[in-house]
Amino acid sequence: MKTINLKFLAIAVVMFVVSCGPKDKKAQADEQILVETVVQEPVYDTTNPETILAAIEHSHGGWNDLWKKGDVEYTYTYHSPANDKKDVSVERYIFSSEASYGKYSRHEINVMPETEGEVVQYFNGNETVVLVNGEKTDDPQGNAVGEFLRKANHFWFVMPYKLNDGGTITTYQGQEEYNGTTYDKLHVTYDPEVTGKEQNDIYILYVNPETKLIDRFYFSLPFLGVNEPVIIANYNYEDIDGQLVSAKRTYFLPSEEGYSEDPSIIQTLTDIKFGNGFTEETLMQ
């Protein structure tokens, strides 16, 4: 089994962003709002796996509801238990433009770990800037990671609504029991004609047929040569103002010995607040 270096997992989130359908995101969002308005209680039909993706969206509170909230702010902790290192940031996103802000008070893993002081990443919907102690940095790696994480962290937050973007190819793979629950399994990948990529990401989603939530999934990482879905993610949710948010995420990376019982990475989202009235001009204030 392929061993995956922990420090590269942050790059994995970029693969979600790149692979998820056409780039006209506002048009997609407007279409999703219309669909959500018309279809209030989507059918959950394993013979038509696209309906399962629609049911997942609905179960989380619906894209229309999230869109109306406007924005979100939360504290994001990315923790490596093996060495007790962390990246800790205040995250802010505007859903309509996908503007994304992260202010790191602690950055020991992926975000300029050799740099002292506060790091701020800001994507205004068009371009990304990275500031270190209030000054724009010209560090190429720091800027590259900032570009990646601003789009990726936003994607992780809205993932239930992005899985059903144009270009998605979904196949039902039957049921499997895990931890006392029998899950419906969905194989999800993307049409290369839509994404423009020769090797697209693959996800195996474990959908709880009672709650319509993704409690667990496997994913591939072609960027690092992992072409099969062998990285495991387990999700736990909190109801925040009508939206079910994946407030705790545990990741298990394969090694030559298989999977450890202890997670390789733990991500937590706390102090989640919607509807803060942010604009692209005030997001950094």
Summarize the structure.
By secondary structure, the chain is an alpha+beta fold.
Helix content range: 10-25%
Bin the strand percentage. Answer: 35-45%
Number of strands: 13
The gyration radius over C-alpha positions equals: 18 Å
Structural class: alpha+beta
Numbering strands along the chain, what is their spatial order in the largest sheet? Answer: 6-5-4-3-2-1-13-12-11-10-9-8-7
**Overall pLDDT:** 88
**Overall body shape:** globular
How far apart are the first and last residues' alpha carbons, in Å? 46 Å
Order of helices and strands: HHHHEEEEEEHEEHEEEEE
Descriptive notes:
The chain is α+β, with helices and mostly antiparallel strands and 285 residues long. It has 6 helices and 13 strands. Strand 1 (71-80) and strand 2 form a beta hairpin. The radius of gyration is 18 Å and the shape is globular.
